[in-house]
Amino acid sequence: MSLGVIMLVHTGFDRAEQMVRHWAHAGCPVVVHVDSNVPVATYDAFSQSLADLVNVRFSARHRCEWGTWGLVAASQEAATLLLEDFPEVQHAFLASGTCLPLRPIAELQRYLDAHPDTDFIESATTADVPWTVGGLDRERFTLQFPFAWKKHRRLFDLFVKLQQALGYRRNIPDGIVPHMGSQWWCLTRQTLDAILRDPHRPTYDAYFRKVWIPDESYYQTLTRLHARIVESRSLTLAKFDYQGKPHIFFDDHAELLQRSKSFVARKIWHDAHLLYQTFPLPDDPLRADEEPNSGAVDRVFSQAVERRTLGRPGLYMQSRYPSSDRQTSIAAAPYAVLQGLDDVFPDFSAWLTRQTGAQVHGHLFAKDRAHFADESEVYRGGLSDNARLRDYNGKMFLTNLIWNGRDQHHCFQFGPADTQDIRWTLAKDTNASIWVVSGAWSIPLYDSGRSASEVRTEAARLQRIEDKFLRVLRSPDARARIKIMTLAQFIEAPMDVLQTIIDDIAGHRGNALKEVPKMPDLTGLPDFLQDLKNQGMHPFLTGDITVGNTQQTIPAVRRKPYVISGQ
Amino acid sequence: MAPPKTGLWHAYRLRWKRRRFLFRIWRKRNELTVSLDRTTKISSDAILAFATVRNEIVRLPHFLDYYRELGINHFLFVDNGSDDGTAAFLAQQSDVSLWTTTDSYRLSRFGMDWLGWLQWQYGNRHWCLTVDADELLTYPDAENRDLHALTTWLDDQGEASFGALMLDLYPKGSLGSATYQPGDDPTASLNWFDADNYRDQVHPYYHNLWIQGGVRERVFFADEPARAPTLNKTPLVRWSWRYAYVSSTHQILPTRLHDVFDLKGDSKVSGALLHTKFLPIVAAKSAEELTRGQHFQNTALYQDYHRRLTKNPDFWHEGSCRYEGPAQLVELGLMSKGRWV
């Protein structure tokens, strides 16, 4: 067999042994490098366990710490041994103890035979690809990194900043252009040999020794000097999260791995027994010539990551608590807050439900209890109507309600008689549409039949509270969609406003108003308001209501748009 | 709510608080009597479980099976004066070490001083799970991935702790009506929960995410929401002898360990503790609690709570959710996969 394997092992020796045997039984010579941090006894036991295999060698050991030169030195050592001891090897495959072949090795062999001159190594110039973690792409080649990133993060960062501030730059040796990519490659004998025997190798080695994470750039850069055909992708399926840490594959990824059609995958969880049983798949002539296709896996992983990390706005839970100054939307979905409309139209909620099909709640923040759409004591998700529970953390009450019912559009009535603690939350939430008919609280007072002198204090209180709310809504920090009109403006043309609200809630499904909510007779309202004024309480939020504009307005018929067809 | 305390002075005070806890743990070490010490069996990569129990013979058979399956290698129990054969049962288990005490549970900070001493001795460098006998930890993909998979991944990510929400499970119908035999899966008879009435805020002193709500608050604490049970926990920690739990596993010092939530809009991985308190035995247990008074600081309030529990109330309502497994809890947003894809 012309495929040789270099395997770097530092832990999980039982699985590593299984994998070495696997490659070796398929006829591939294997050179194993064991991290020199591994205790001698463990190493001896491991090498003993593989003593029966004739085509397995152990190379001299180096200290392999993440991101250090040791990993490159280890693979150089092992590659030299592989090329010397096994002259039949035409392709060298770099793997780790946690790499698992997904397809039969014969298929990989056949694939490589079909591409005898191709080096499979992911290799991109740093200028073009911003995929690295921590923003260090170009700079990993031009700065010094004396401190370990994992152990002395602060020193590492500080030293990087210092060099950036001073404008320090290392010289890159002549003739090479820094490239980076996955550290798992498969190179041809010719390329690998040329890299290892390059007369400038001491210069390159000395340079890369001080580059950060050289195992992602040493072969990736030098291959470009010697290769005949570079296929810039790795034959090993390895997924990294956005922090650059490798994803681990578990039993539940079996189907995904199968779909990827990749030859080898890493990292495999040590105890993923199902994966180790399933893979490599048995020979299948139908699949034998298929190209690896990791696109599906990429999509699944990135979708999953997005959905699970970013895609759940409006959710607050054990491990997600976005602080309010970092986000613009607070609740999970758009909702409408309607102030004053139910004062104008007594059966407004029922009417709005009929018109839009939305969940129309009553006064959710009423002082006595939360009036849910169905007037239940316990709403969906176990939300209680208890006012104390609600007011203990009104914001979470709201976000819970919207999160749990995010399949529907929610609307609720609000007013100056309600608990007001929620107002800043409403005003700052881009998901809120707030409609205010200011001064509408005067209608129930008028309707109560009590005289102006009796309701004067109450009217003053409601006006003061509503005014505060309006000031919040008009503040520059308010980000909700806000429409404020006075009672006078509203009753001038109520149908236009109602139509806009319905279009907003129901979207394109909003129909022309078939049915108009009933407005009470307001003929005495101007006198009532004048009485209030005479008592010294000016209801300035109602706007200027005169006798003429309190007549019930007849809805304008919404005409269907029509087109005059030409000719 | 007061703004969170921050700054160097606060950090320094917390540091001393932690030292005081450690001193207290050390001072109370003599309250424990070793009954069975099998701790020499603990290997260096073992995951340990710590629990204080009292008369839990009904729950323990399933508890042990469940956590063995999940990957716990050794259990360290403190038996606080059981008289129902709990100690004898535990002694028969080959992976259990057992200590006994008859001292006050309340004065031991609800068992945390005793467990703290065991953790101080045996927990160092191990992943340690600290739970009650009525708490079953679950997390995303728990069917396919054991605790070793989770902790290895957490190690990889540089995380030293794992958060979980307490999820109260209850039956449909009155609490006494459910049936349960020792060894049964309690989630079979307690298979309903409240999905979406949990309130989060940042704790002003310890800066943990403080979650309250759930069915107990809905039914028992509606008039005093501030006193409602705390539901956030950090039950799984890669232990160091310097660490100390504060109040149950809700808070831990140093505080970075209970920073198991994300403030930026991501979510970290988190799990849930299925709380099986409301098995049919709860009425009898509550009656006993009423006379013992060993639970929670504000005992007067909790007396009323226990009194009402003895009357087998019904928690179920139209909107209750039937428990289906970890994937459902992820979907509902009660736990999260974070980046653990």
TrEMBL record, chain A:
Molecular function as annotated in GO: metal ion binding; protein xylosyltransferase activity
GO biological process, one term: heparan sulfate proteoglycan biosynthetic process
GO cellular component entries: membrane
Keywords from the named record: Disulfide bond, Endoplasmic reticulum, Glycoprotein, Glycosyltransferase, Golgi apparatus, Membrane, Metal-binding, Signal-anchor, Transferase, Transmembrane, Transmembrane helix
Membrane topology per record: Single-pass type II membrane protein
Domain of life according to the entry: Bacteria
Name of the protein in question: Peptide O-xylosyltransferase
Database matches in InterPro entries: DUF5927 (IPR045971), Glyco_trans_14 (IPR003406), XYLT (IPR043538)
Record's keyword annotation contains Metal-binding: yes
Domain DUF5927, first and last residues per copy: 266-564
Organism of provenance: Yoonia maricola
Subcellular location: Endoplasmic reticulum membrane; Golgi apparatus membrane
Classification via Pfam families: Branch, DUF5927
Primary location: endoplasmic reticulum
From TrEMBL, chain B:
Species of origin: Yoonia maricola
Entry's Gene Ontology molecular function annotations: transferase activity
Lineage: Bacteria, Pseudomonadati, Pseudomonadota, Alphaproteobacteria, Rhodobacterales
Keywords assigned: Transferase
Protein name: Glycosyl transferase family 2
